[in-house]
Amino acid sequence: MPTRGRWKDGGVTAPDQTSVPFASPAAAGGAEFIETPVAYDALVLASFGGPEGQDDVIPFLRNVTGGRGIPDERLEEVAHHYRHFGGVSPINQQNRELKAALEAELAARGIDLPVYWGNRNWAPYLDDAFTAASNDGHTTLLVLATSAYSSYSSDRQYREDIARAVTKAGLEDRVTADKVRLFFDHPGFVTPFQEGVDAAVTEFLGQGIPASDIHVLFSTHSIPTADAERSGPRDVDWGQGGAYVAQHRAVAERIMEKLGAVTGGATVPWQLVFQSRSGPPSQPWLEPDVNDVIAELPAAGAKAVVIVPLGFVSDHMEVMWDLDTEAMESAAEAGIPAVRTPTPGIHPAFVTGLIDLVVERIEGTPAAERPHVTDLGPWYDVSRPGDCENVRLGFKPAAAGIAP
Question: Which CA distances in Å does 273 have to 210, 296, 309?
């Protein structure tokens, strides 16, 4: 496995002060880690967004697939996931709850930092959040995206969203916008997953199922293989699947190592699996699919399966449909009991951890003092050149990273 810890060498600085668009002066030079305090005056919570009624579903999916020319009749094939739940994605309500939890944690610490919320694909939109923050007199913004891992859609696209929102709102000369680092291996993010795996395995052990017959599947969103290979900085050999796969695998390995305290050292089989593929059959995407793996578990001697939504911060539609519905049906067809563990949501450790990440940037915490539970962290404050390129779309203007 690759190791990342290059902060020990002091980081890298870009050659000029204009290489990181819309950045604060501290981040504009492009150092990997910003160890200078920044007086941020507002926090912007950035997320994917989702429909909140049947009439919203197709317009929302048009936004998600914008520029691909997909006809509405094909979008309707995906819409049934949302229509099954009344046309309402859970993500907006989850973000309202997370925003309230972040505000409460900030208040408890005596940090005066208002929180705004904006989405990529549905109201409230990110440019509206930037406009509101600016209208309230805030000019030095820090963005917290609800995504933990490196990939185009989970990292670079959010940075493109920031650049587009600033430009669309006409705030290029009025605000700066930095972004909180990816937090895949921050203890606040990992702890809820660890607790869930520990509890599920303990439950099955209590039913008399041997540890070797309990299989743990760590599930995350599949992405095009070509995009996965381009995730993470280009100057590191991440192995097959790029930084996206390396990050998930590193976190899963950490969780399974600590699980030994529950099993008395007995080994529990585990695997990284993928879900929610949406591309054409001719385009390679990350595999294996979670349902295909579940179908094969009886032949492997499995008597129980623990499904861990490792790629998700809360119970998104992909969790409720692809895991709670389809994967559970697959487990029932295979004749084995299954438990789906919780996502971080508004778990106290997760909320506290997110504010810790915000404080890192406010105080300019040295990289050597930043918590992380794998050898890949702590991740960068400023993305490196070429990080998380989208093969189909190429490079668009993006904040919080060195161009392109």
Answer: 22, 13, 10
